[in-house]
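HOLO CASE FILE
Compound: iron/sulfur cluster
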Amino acid sequence: MHKILVSGCLNGRPIRFNSTAVSVESEIWDRWDSEGRLVAFCPELAAGFPVPRAPAEIVGSTASVVLKGEGRVEEDNGTDVTNEFIDGARLTAQRAKAEGCIMAVLTDGSPSCGTTYTYDGTFTGGTVEGMGVTAQLLHDQGLRVFPEDQIDEADRYLRSLDE
Ligand code: SF4
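Model generated. Tokens follow.
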């Protein structure tokens, strides 16, 4: 059975930077859960961040550049948290590999988990297309990554693998 790495905050745990969860109302999600496919993991908690924590954004760069060691992730007070974000991505990829996950459904917009967009590094609410650091690493390692509002598409992909 194919397993799915999912953002920990999608599974009901209020662990985002602002102590909230993201609710997913989906029969597909419930079916995946009952089938035992979900592997919930939070890269930022794995990297040692607390809840709540300062908001962070990829600054003037992209996740790919960050993973090459040439870009930065910063908190809104200017603290450089690049190494922690890379650690979180690596720990997530290790867990995905250990569990045999072949795809991921992740919380969009996060500097770790974003799959279609992230915030633009100015801490003003602006967004840019692109992935967070963890999503990018999972993608680079061959997992298909989906945002939480594309569960139907993710399920179609899963079924194509199950056939
Ligand atoms: S790092 Fe990912 S799993 Fe953790 S709280 Fe942020 S979006 Fe959710």
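CASE NOTES: The first helix runs from residue 27 to 34. The CA atoms of residues 32 and 38 lie 6 Å apart.
CLOSED: yes
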